[in-house]
Design a protein that fits this description.
- By secondary structure, the chain is an alpha+beta fold.
- It has one domain.
- 20% of the residues lie in helices and 37% in strands.
- The strands form 2 sheets. A 5-stranded antiparallel β-sheet has the order 5-4-6-7-8, with no helix packed on it. Strands 2-1-3 form a 3-stranded antiparallel β-sheet, with no helix packed on it.
- Helix 3 packs antiparallel against helix 4.
- The longest helix has 24 residues.
- The radius of gyration is 34 Å and the shape is rod-shaped.
- It starts with 26 loop residues before the first strand and ends in a 6-residue tail after the last strand.
């Protein structure tokens, strides 16, 4: 299962507040800003011999994963012609790099893989023995101060490079992505694919790879659908207008007040509220108004 750090997400939510007046063709869009971590583990070429020559267990296959670290949502007005440019990060190469180990270069094409692994293990043990001798003074080498520090650092570097051949290594990078969902009254399900997550990182909603992260935009203040009256039912008659008053038909646009839920599968990652005018409705009603007095 992919890892998610949910505990801090709610504190990172930022919803803008809007009035109910949105003129022209303006619409509200929901911008989702995602911070994710991409991790790739590369198996070592001598992994199958780690137990035999080093006495340790090593992972036997490479694996890649991506998980959400934090996410924010913000509602903003968009006008026709607005363009949005989004960053999905630079993804880690799928090709491992073990070229920094000289022993591996010399072994290619000259020895079998197991013989090369045995030689690498011998060199690793030799480095550890020399370091131990220096630290305990059991050596003819005279090292102190900066020369001792540099020698020990070089031993550590060589040891780490040789261990990579058996235990592999992991590369991790931070990914930032911004995605936009524009709610539409034509979407009766109120569900939108916000973006996708795959082992290769963050991907746009229209990509075929990865699992979907969806945004639900659920209006709260829309009127319930009224049943269609049958022919046998008599419509209610409105009362007679008082003297000097008359009934007048009026209309008022009501923007939709919505709950927003960002989900990864069934898990609600983030929840908040926003006013989304384009999901609203026009309310028609009749109101008593004074009858204008004709001027003499």
């Amino acid at each position: 299962m992919k890892r998610f750090l949910i505990s801090a997400l709610m504190a990172l939510t930022a919803f803008s507040s809007f009035g109910q007046d949105c003129g022209g063709d303006e619409k509200v869009f929901i911008k989702i800003s995602v911070s994710a971590v991409q991790e790739k583990y590369f198996v070592g070429p001598y992994a199958k011999y780690a137990q035999k020559y080093l006495g340790v267990e090593a992972r036997q296959s490479s694996v890649s994963s991506t998980w959400i670290e934090s996410v924010k949502m913000a509602a903003a007005f968009a006008s026709p012609g607005d363009e949005f440019v989004f960053n999905f990060g630079e993804y880690i190469s799928d090709r491992p790099d073990f070229t920094s180990v000289p022993l591996l270069k010399a072994a290619v094409g000259q020895k079998s893989i197991e013989a090369a692994a045995s030689a690498a293990a011998d060199q690793l043990m030799n480095i550890r023995q020399k370091r131990y001798q220096i630290l305990t003074g059991d050596t003819d080498m005279s090292l102190s101060g900066e020369s001792l520090k540099l020698t020990l650092e070089e031993f550590s570097r060589q040891e780490n490079e040789l261990l990579k051949l058996f235990l592999g290594y992991t590369l991790t990078q931070q990914l930032e992505g911004e995605f936009v969902v524009t709610p539409s009254a034509d979407n009766e399900s109120n569900l939108y694919v916000a973006f996708r997550i795959s082992e290769n990182g963050l991907l746009p909603a229209n990509h075929l790879e990865g699992r979907m992260v969806t945004l639900e935009v659920q209006p709260l203040n829309l009127p319930a659908s009224e049943p269609v009256a049958s022919e046998d039912e008599n419509p209610k008659k409105k009362p007679k207008a008082p003297k000097n008053m008359k009934w007048e038909t009026k209309s008022e646009f009501i923007p939709a007040e919505c709950v927003l839920r960002l989900r990864d599968g069934a898990t609600v990652v983030l929840q908040g509220e926003a006013v989304v005018p384009q999901l609203g409705y026009t309310r028609t009603y009749e109101e008593l108004v004074p009858v204008p007095v004709a001027s003499k």
